[in-house]
């Protein structure tokens, strides 16, 4: 290990000079003996943008309509600030006990185990991995909505506005699932950088299109630009207004959810410099980029549609003109979600496979890699267990998505259940434990106050989103599309 540390501290040229000498493999290994990580601030930022600018951006205009011109921007900025602050704390938990020289924590659960221990490890695992599953289901639903929108748009353009262009979501969910079965065979997170870059470009592209369409529609004369307090009590009633505000909080929380994969992203970053420094730069770049887009898309979307803003921003522009531009935006959404699905699913794949390897170290079915030669590509390592279990997982998420095609309510539940524990509670508690902050000091009280306020917001968002699902179930028929 001492030799490894000495070699890694030298310039790249020194490593190349050793490649034919006494230490041919040292330059290809990190301080933990694993293959050397190659991630940079740019690849980490791409992962973050792919994870953050997801389908949540499409619901922000609707959220603004529930909150109004005063509370809406304040809520979005507040979530951005809290997410950025706690992400900085979480980045310091990648190594323990020292944030720069300690032992690596490869997953979120490893960080909780090293800093908190006890029952909180199991709680973290249940919350994190159930939300990873839920996010995969939500992305399957959203991708099908966009594919259906393309089909309907082309149908209306070809046959006229009065044509019957009913389209089922189910075949498109199945198509999305088939694509994910293929991509799920990407071995691990470190091999996912190229897909994240493509997805990040796509997310920025459809956000810009939505932004441009919002500007054009907002400049049309004669329509409402929204109100200071959003949808009025007279339109929906007092109780419904409260539920919608709570659900909007959940949608905004979901839009900023990436902490559940932050440690896994950080584990792809090379060092030196220390991983936490690079991750903090990537977090600043990622959160600032997404917040600018969120504020623009949410505010301009609300200005365009007023209190009638749709749950999915792009569906509000209709299917007619400019239908081709909306089609492009929906294609970008689908491509982005193809990559985002993998960003949120790879940590779950790794958890299951690593756990079984530890339990069954002698099993050839679980551990053996079969080398397959692919012309013009090279070799690919096929693992039978990986092939079968990941395929079953994708089939499962696809079936659940077909059963529960509720867009906004699903987003709200995912955001509410993940935001407080994974974005706020665990990062703050791990930071307190790592820095040995004493109880009832000013710093301790300030940190715990943030935790308490965010808990109350998350509870409100969860209650509102559950009420929305209950309301949807009153008219719901399994496997029947609303389009």
From TrEMBL:
The keyword 4Fe-4S does not apply. One of its GO terms (cellular component) is plasma membrane. InterPro entries: AA_transpt_TM. Keywords: Amino-acid transport, Cell membrane, Membrane, Transmembrane, Transmembrane helix, Transport. Its main location: membrane. Residues 37-468 form the Amino acid transporter transmembrane domain. It is found in: Cell membrane. It holds the Pfam family Aa_trans. The chain crosses the membrane at residues 39-62, 68-91, 192-216, 284-303, 323-344, 387-407, 413-432, 444-466. Belongs to the amino acid/polyamine transporter 2 family. Amino acid/auxin permease (AAAP) (TC 2.A.18.2) subfamily. This is Amino acid transporter transmembrane domain-containing protein.
